[in-house]
Amino acid sequence: MTVRVRLAPSPTGTLHLGTARTALFNWLFAKKEGGTFLLRIEDTDIERSKDEYINNIYDGLQWLGINWDESPIIQSNRINEHKKIIRSLISKGFAYKCFASESEINELRETQKRNGLAPRYDNRHRNLTPEQESEFIKAGREPVIRFKINDQKLISWDDLIRGKMTWNGKDLGGDMVIARRAPADTIGDPLYNLVVVADDSAMKISHVIRGEDHLANTAKQILLYEALDLKIPVFAHTPLILNSEGKKLSKRDGVTSISEFKKMGYTSEAMANYMTLLGWSLPEGINERFKISEVSEIFSFKKVNKASAKFDWDKLNWLNSQVIHDMSSRTLLENLDPLFKKNGWYLPNQEWGKHLVDLIGPSMVLINDGVDQAKPFLKNQN
Ligand code: GLU
After folding, report:
1. What does the pLDDT look like over 346-378, one tens digit per residue?
2. What is the pLDDT of residues 144-160, one digit of tens each?
3. Is the pTM higher than 0.90?
4. Residue 21 to residue 23: CA distance in whole angstroms
5. Which atom of ligand 1 lies nearest, measured to the CA of 19?
6. 367 CA → ligand 1 middle, Å
7. Distance of alpha carbon 336 from alpha carbon 340, whole angstroms
């Protein structure tokens, strides 16, 4: 099988550690299999998507050494294709217009909550007659488009990390919205599960590798692949990254974006090394300090854990210090010089600078540590 994998980030924030780790596993797998690694920018949430985040994602990946093989696909450019697919689902009876209003749906959820039930749509508009539809339109209602989900259906796939997975149709929350509310004679903005299936299929993605928070989406997407008669890719769901308290790593943990780690003085080599270890168990006899290009030959999903990975600052710091200690004086000086200049400190000459970093290098953990340590020497120089 020709391996084609992709990272599909939403540019609604900076490149997150979890997304970068997903990128790494995709990239390592593509390298191992002689395949292709692609990028798709999922910018359909127009209000929250920003160009600065797209650039931050590109910069972060490049900094880590994760290069993509073809021009990135910009999802919003494909909206007409997405709408065409929605129309075909409606015409084949797999999808329909649902005129239930926001307040009716909220009311339904409240009742379910009161009765201790999980929230789900009750499929109330699945079989409207043309007369009922025109009544709603006359009353000024705008529909969403829903895809029918068969409650009786068992959905299964062989996950490369988690093995055989089975999901019950009845646990997917009822018929799923695939297009936002819009006037009845149009198709509203297509939504995540639909566009992902449309694009993964158009990009001929062979393996979808993403976080385990997408497990329920995978079940829904398999139903869409089947309805559209498209080839279903192989799935691999990577373990979540947790903080030291065992909770999902989030903004509250302080640093979560790659650009912030860079700013703090972590090296790209240590970051990429550490992220690979977040979930992947090294095969016997392999040193835990490596460059990602060195382990791509031996990467396999067989060694990716199902259990979540705990973020360990001590380990990352240790790896970073090792990378710094192994740097030549010249490289270390190249890393530090821009930071010195920011403080208005200039080196009398290169030789002097090299002696300085030879002195301070061995006790540095972060590149930025060099600034504090060089301060007494450089302040007096200028
Ligand atoms: N845009 C989705 C996300 O950032 C992509 C998920 C996927 O890989 O399908 O979570």
Report:
1. 999 999 999 999 999 999 999 999 999 999 988
2. 999 999 999 999 999 99
3. yes
4. 5
5. 4
6. 32
7. 6
